[in-house]
Amino acid sequence: MNAMKFFQTTLFFLLLLGCAPALAQIQSDTQLTGKAAYIQGMEAFENEEFETARELFLEARRNLEAPSGVNYALADTYLQLDDLPKAALYGKQAVETEPENKWYRLKLAQIYRAAGRNQATLDELTTLLDFHPDDFDALYMLADTYNDYGEFLKSNETLDQVLKLTGPDIQVLLMKFRNFEALAVPDSAVAQLEKVRDIDPDNLEMLNMLGEYYVRNGERDSAKKVLSDALNRNARDPQSLINLAGIYLDEQRWDSAGTLLTDFIGDPLIEPVDKMNIARFLYSRVQQDSQNIQLRIETERVLDTLTESESGYGPAFTLAGEFYAQTAQPEKALENLERANELLPEDDIAWRQRLQLLMSQERYEEAIKVGEKADESVPDDAFIQFFVGSAYMLTDQNQKAEEWLENATRAPARRPFKSIVYSTLGDVRANLEHHEASDEAYELALRYDPENDNAMNNYAYNLSVRGENLERAKELALKAIEVAPENAAYLDTVGWVYFKLGDYDRAKRFIDASIKTGAASAEVLEHMGDVEEQLGNMDEARDWWQQALEKDSTRTHLQDKIN
Q: Which one of 143, 181, 460, 527 is at 20 to 30 Å from 137 when CA atoms are compared?
């Protein structure tokens, strides 16, 4: 006998024996279990434990006789779980049980809307309004739904009904503003914002929105009046200040914008973070208009005021350092970045910028000292380790360079930068004549970034110098000049690979192309002499060797070739 049949039979005998009180107790216990599950489900829902809430609500539904509230809760839970078919199923059951319940229909309309069932959403809201014609929530949701479906006129008609019920309401007026914007009716749109301004004249967010809208519509004078009003209400509001300064900049009133922002940044009552937002705003404008000398000078004034007024605030010096680096003022950049490192030693950006500047100025010994100090404050930074390794390589300390670059390969970094690190490690190992390890590093560089033309060229050149795997060298060298066809070093590499392959005609043509770029090194001139020698043109060969020696007097071995 199965369990259900056993239960039914047992219940039948209990009734025959007159045990109705016992049955009432069973029903009472079942109801209590259902109510407890429902309460626990609500608690789980509030804690956003939706899977648990679903199981508890299902249990409650099994044990309660009139579970319309549970159906509503299940509909909401399945909506949160993004199971829209089941959400709709239970939502409909809740509505069928209590057709006039406002919240049940609103939830079902919300579910239909999430499922993209436009007409079903509108039908539910219309039915709801038949029962509750002046309900704010239903009317507002209907207006919002019309807005969502692009029916902006119907949305505004519905919002007008809401306004008759509530009087002026900011939330409603803002939706009307968005509808008029979508309909491209700027006068009506701005009229809504003006109404909001009348309701809440001290609302700075609203004043800024109104100012921005006037700017978009070319009404700068109106925008300036609104933003000036905002600043009269709060002279330290950064957004109003940025918006007004933006208008001055658009009008090319650089000094007016600069004075406005400098005064703000010099105010000791302003928070450093707000000052930084102003400085970043002006710096971004310089980046967009890098040739504008007046704008650059005003930005310098603002940044200098920022670092003077906030002399203990590290991010201000990092930003100033970045600005001066971008505007080709390396000494001022280094001065600010050094201060940033002192104030905020964990700021990796400031260390990186400072190292990059030192490297660009060929101050390699200083870069090593700064980089080693940076590594103590920001360990395992691939960029910092790369800069130190490169500085060691450029000062012919290849053993130390290899150590730092190997560490850089193990630090987290994006694939293109990993490729650069491995390519440089390949160069260092080539200098140390660790050829197998060098080739391995170059191959890894190309695996991380198959378009790394510098890795292709250097790998190809090292293979050609050794006279090994020349076909691979040719493949790499030719691919490198596809990326950078005017690169003198790359053209020379192709020529030298052909030289090693015994193809002296092609070798001469490519090395000649390298020389014609005007950027050829003494080594390229020497290579041309070597090609002419192989072609039997000894006078031309001596002439090229002589030019190479004059360009680089350290290449003393050329004197033997000339003699």
A: 181
Long-range contacts of 25-30 (CB under 8 A, 24+ apart): 30/63
Q: Which helix (H) or strand (E) holds 433?
A: none
Does the pTM exceed 0.70?
no
Start-to-end CA span in the chain (Å): 115
Q: Report the distance separating Cα 559 and Cα 546, nearest Å.
A: 8
* Alpha carbon distance 400, 367 (integer Å): 14
**Sign (positive or negative) of CA dihedral 409, 413, 417, 419:** positive
CA distance 73 to 92: 12
Which DSSP letter does residue 344 get?
-
Closest by CA position to 65, among listed 88, 96, 41, 34 = 34
pLDDT tens, residue by residue, 50-66: 999 999 999 989 988 76
236 to 209, 261, 270: CA distances (angstroms)? 17, 11, 7
Q: What residues does each domain of the chain span? A: 27-129, 475-563
- Are 53 and 75 in contact by the 8 Å Cβ rule? The answer is no
Q: Which residues are within 8 A (CB) of 439 and not within 5 positions of it... i.e. 6 or more apart?
A: 426, 459, 462, 463
Residue type, 212: E
Using CA atoms, how far apart are residues 137 and 21, in angstroms rounded to an integer?
47
Query: Is the domain 475-563 a CATH 3.40.630.30 member?
Result: no
Q: Please tell me the chain's helix, strand, coil percentages from 3-state DSSP, rounded to the nearest 5.
A: 80, 0, 20
Query: 184 Cβ partners below 8 Å, 6+ apart?
Result: none
Please write the tens of the pLDDT for every residue from 424-457: 999 999 999 999 999 999 999 999 999 999 999 9
Q: Fill in the amino acid letter for 400.
A: K
CA separation for the pair 351, 387 (Å, rounded): 10
Q: Is the dihedral of CA 93, 94, 97, 102 positive or negative?
A: negative
